[in-house]
Design goal:
Radius of gyration: 19 Å
Shape: globular
Structural class: mainly alpha
Number of helices: 6
Largest sheet: none
Length: about 180
């Protein structure tokens, strides 16, 4: 019971930090302005981890690896904790376990990225109906445009209703099924 509570808390804390690191990574990758409440929150929450890594880990092709690598390592740490607390190391060979943990951490990081996209798409849809001129509307739109623009080229708005967020969410859910 105590182990389960500890794993829950560890999953919640590491999951939230992974989410913030991935949001920072995608905001930088898609050139979203950090001059807003969400950007300031993400930067202040993750600076303690990202800034020191930037000294030793350069970006590649304009991607901030100092934000992506810790997100992956946090998922790896979480999976390692879950596996070790459940006694998985006694059952299988250590080489197989490590390979499986590295792969599962990559899948978990990708899964959280897709949940981040789904959340941004839902937030954009709600903000476009409720408060289109909200300070959050522009950053959320910048974050989702690279995913929505290809869909909008194929499926134009029908009676002034944009179905591209719905289609993007369905496609993201489809990808999650395979992960």
């Amino acid at each position: 019971m105590l182990t389960q509570a500890g794993l829950f808390l560890l999953d919640a804390v590491l999951g939230f930090l992974t989410f913030a690191l991935l949001l920072r990574f995608y905001m930088q990758a898609f050139r979203v302005s950090f001059a807003n409440q969400v950007g300031a929150f993400v930067v202040q929450l993750t600076n303690w981890l990202v800034k020191p890594l930037r000294r030793v880990l350069p970006g590649v092709f304009g991607l901030d690896l100092a934000s992506l690598l810790p997100a992956y390592l946090l998922q790896l740490l979480l999976l390692f904790a879950v596996f070790s607390l459940r006694g998985g190391f006694e059952i299988q060979a250590p080489g197989q376990v490590l390979a499986m943990l590295f792969w599962q951490a990559a899948l978990a990081t990708l899964r959280i990225s897709i949940y981040l996209l789904i959340g941004a798409l839902i937030l954009q849809a709600v903000l476009s109906w409720v408060s289109p001129y909200s300070p959050l509307s522009r950053p959320v739109a910048q974050l989702t445009q690279p995913f929505l623009n290809p869909i909008r080229r194929v499926v134009p708005p029908i009676a002034a209703i944009d179905l591209s967020p719905l289609i993007a969410i369905l496609l993201a859910q489809l990808i999650l099924i395979f992960l």
